[in-house]
Amino acid sequence: QVQLVESGGGLVRAGGSLRLSCAASGTIFSIDILGWYRQAPGKQRELVATITSGGSTNYADSVKGRFTISRDNAKNTVYLQMNSLKPEDTAVYYCNLYRGGVARLSSWGQGTQVTVSS
After folding, report:
1. Judging by DSSP bridges, how do beta strands 112-117 and 10-13 pair with one another?
2. Max CA-CA distance within the chain?
3. Which residues contact 43 (CB under 8 A, 6 or more apart)?
4. Gyration radius from the chain CA atoms
5. Which of 87, 115, 109, 90 has the alpha carbon at shortest distance from 39?
6. Partners of 46 in the beta sheet?
């Protein structure tokens, strides 16, 4: 099993920045993809960004150029640097670990609230 613990959420004004962290405990494999998702009130959970252990990244169009995902494999930690925040970025942000193959696994953190005021 893998446990994920997010931190770094909070309240920030539009145009500001926040950095989210997610520490993973348990056995992490090189095939594991770490990512950030978010869910705003009344909306479905959506992808924000993902990163492989090799550093390949994928971003939602809405955050490209503003958010940066990074990963420290030695610390089993994934980060999300969020710049130029907008009110529409307000959501609960969730960390996810996805493992494909025969030992398929998808683990979620408890979420951290990000609120961007206008």
Report:
1. parallel
2. 46
3. 91
4. 14
5. 90
6. 38
Q: How far apart are CA 70 and CA 112, in angstroms?
A: 18
Residues 82/9, Cβ–Cβ less than 8 Å: no
pLDDT digit string (tens) for 2-11?
999 999 999 9
- Say which residue the tokens 């962290």 belong to: 21
Residue identified by tokens 């931190």 is: 7
pLDDT at 1 over 90: no
Cα end-to-end distance, the chain, whole Å: 40
Joined tokens for residue 47: 């992808």
**71 to 31, 53, 85: CA distances (angstroms):** 13, 7, 21
pLDDT in tens, 32-84: 999 999 999 999 999 999 999 999 999 999 999 999 999 999 999 999 999 99
CA separation for the pair 71, 110 (Å, rounded) = 19
